[in-house]
Design a protein that fits this description.
By secondary structure, this protein is mainly beta. It contains no helices and 14 strands. The protein has 3 domains: about 55 residues, SH3 type barrels; about 60 residues, OB fold (Dihydrolipoamide Acetyltransferase, E2P) (Beta Barrel), CATH 2.40.50; about 55 residues, OB fold (Dihydrolipoamide Acetyltransferase, E2P). The strands form 3 sheets. It has a 5-stranded antiparallel β-sheet, with no helix packed on it. Strands 12-11-10-13-14 form a 5-stranded antiparallel β-sheet, with no helix packed on it. A 4-stranded antiparallel β-sheet has the order 1-2-3-4, with no helix packed on it. A hairpin with a 2-residue loop joins β8 and β9. The protein is flat and about 60 Å long. The two termini are about 40 Å apart. Belongs to the elongation factor P family.
Length: about 190
């Protein structure tokens, strides 16, 4: 696969390890005859480390032997989160430390979770782009402060703290972006 054909979410092999592409920046050449550079922000699937990679558009990369499977959370104990494949009912378990960035977005009954499978082993999970969460604690808005758009912290049902506009009230359901952790809209 050519570097210029890679999209966000693609998993390729870099230095012998599978990396998932999370961001792409294209740098056009400033001189004639120079090559366009593709700068990728990636995350190593096995170690979870973020890396920056730069390639020319004509460089060839190999796609990793990698798949995504729809799963649901069966239960969580003190050390692991246990998942079940929705198609063949195979069980996967991951250490809670491996999914600590995803846990604040995972409310009970969340649909759209995908297991990242590499060499027949689950190496991580992928959440949907947005999730709907309910506010459990939020300060009331102050009347008369609507001339400027100010934000206030709101604690969601999973413990996630999100900055929301002042008019949002406790008990409302909100759409939250799982990639950035930012408030998007009311649900």
């Amino acid at each position: 696969m050519l570097a210029k054909d890679i999209k966000t979410g693609t998993v390729v092999v870099h230095d012998g390890n599978p990396v998932i592409i999370q961001g792409i920046h294209v740098q056009s050449p400033s001189a004639r005859g120079a090559a366009t550079l593709y700068k990728f922000r990636a995350r190593n699937v096995l170690t979870k480390n973020k890396i920056d990679i730069t390639f020319k558009g004509t460089d060839n990369l190999t796609e990793a032997d990698f798949s995504r499977r729809d799963v649901q959370v069966t239960y969580t104990d003190t050390t692991h989160i246990h998942l079940m494949d929705k198609e063949d009912f195979q069980d996967y378990d991951l250490l809670l430390e491996e999914v600590e960035n995803e846990l604040p977005f995972m409310a009970e009954g969340l649909e759209g979770i995908r297991a990242l499978i590499y060499n027949d082993a689950c190496v991580g999970i992928e959440l949907p782009a947005t999730v709907e969460l309910t506010i459990t604690q939020c300060d009331p808005g102050v009347k008369g402060n609507s001339a400027t758009s100010r934000n206030k912290p709101a604690t969601m049902e999973t413990g996630l703290i999100v900055q929301v506009p002042e008019h949002i009230k406790e008990g409302e359901r909100l759409k939250i972006d799982t990639r950035t952790g930012l408030f998007l809209s009311r649900a």
